[in-house]
Write a structure and sequence with these properties.
Length: 333
């Protein structure tokens, strides 16, 4: 990226009047207005359209830097200049070797700063493939469960300074091409939590391979959750979720279950602490390699989700206090 070129220049001791991000933003503004064009002030850029674009930057102390960018790099700089905040995609993984490469390939280039995979004692080659793909990898010595895996994901994201965290199941069931869209909604402050809804229409969900019993159970549970939590989400049980940093800093998710009901607890907590929830349509794919809990586990999960709603209202009415709805975390992680 253009950032890298300018950052390397600054690293060699040439000090500019403003930083690499501002330069990229200036380049983007100049190119959108047509060429040739000069920007007045301490930094002068002269740009020419064509197969490549030349830019001459006048630096402080008389230094000049002339660099050449392709149109693709200019487009990249426009995107980068409009982005702010660090984005990390996290993947709680268990035996995801067969689908991991496709999932990672779907994430738009430049939309995230890091991809973290937390492996929960897979018996296949998930870890080796993740490292081959250049992902950051954390491995659990024992299987901590789906919820326990997410706890590790979010802890790492906070420790490494993420402003936006996108949780993507690595089973290729969710279309990760919408990652950038979800993060932009967070960046604009429209929502604090964004979920990917698999059920834009009944026909699309079933055509994508969702079993009928799962569709019916999802519709019933999602309707009950919307009523109980005062929301209007299309799919409360999505494996594609994006959060602002403040959400993870506030919600005491460490107290949540280590099992699948972690997700239901987290969303009830998000409502309890006053965060704004929203969703976007995400095409769904059900196939043999995609992970999916069986009917028995689905019943257990559904029952546990209803239990979360009961605890939410018991806490809200002051009948029984639940620690997962207790005081928010008072310090940033």
């Amino acid at each position: 990226m253009l950032y890298g070129r300018i950052a390397r220049l600054i690293g060699r001791g040439v000090r500019a009047d403003f930083g690499a991000r501002e330069w990229c933003s200036a380049v983007a503004r100049a190119t959108t207005a047509g060429a040739p064009r000069s920007l007045s002030g301490s930094t002068a850029l002269t740009l020419f359209r064509g197969k490549t674009i030349m830019a001459q930057v006048q630096l402080r102390h008389g230094h000049e830097f002339v660099f050449e960018m392709t149109n693709a790099e200019i487009a990249d700089s426009k995107l980068a200049g409009s982005r702010s905040g660090k984005t990390i995609a996290v993947m709680p993984a268990y035996n995801a070797e067969a689908t991991l490469r496709q999932t990672v390939a779907d994430i738009p280039s430049g939309s995230v700063d890091e991809i973290l995979l937390v492996d929960d004692c897979s018996s296949d080659e998930t870890v080796n493939l993740a490292r081959e793909l250049g992902l950051t990898v954390i491995t659990h010595e024992t299987n901590l469960g789906y919820g326990g895996n997410q706890k590790t994901c979010y802890q790492h994201a906070l420790e490494t300074g993420a402003d936006f965290i996108v949780m993507i199941h690595p089973d290729y069931q969710y279309d990760a091409r919408v990652t950038e869209v979800a993060v932009e909604i967070l960046r604009l402050g429209i929502c604090d939590c964004v979920l990917g809804s698999r059920i834009r229409t009944r026909g699309e969900a079933l055509a994508g391979g969702m079993p009928l019993y799962k569709y019916l159970a999802n519709r019933i549970l999602t309707t009950i959750e919307n009523v109980c939590l005062g929301q209007n989400l299309g799919d409360f049980h999505s494996g594609f979720r994006a959060y602002r940093r403040e959400v993870l800093e506030t919600i005491p998710y460490e107290k949540n279950s280590d099992d699948f009901v972690f997700d239901s607890e987290f969303l009830a907590q998000a409502v309890h602490y006053g965060f704004k929830l929203g969703d976007i349509p995400v095409p769904v794919r059900y196939f043999d390699e995609a992970s999916s809990i069986n009917f028995r586990r689905s019943v257990t999960y559904g029952t546990a989700t209803l239990g979360v709603l009961a605890r939410y209202w018991s806490h809200r009415l002051g009948l029984v206090r639940s620690p997962i709805f207790g005081p928010p975390k008072t310090t940033s992680t």
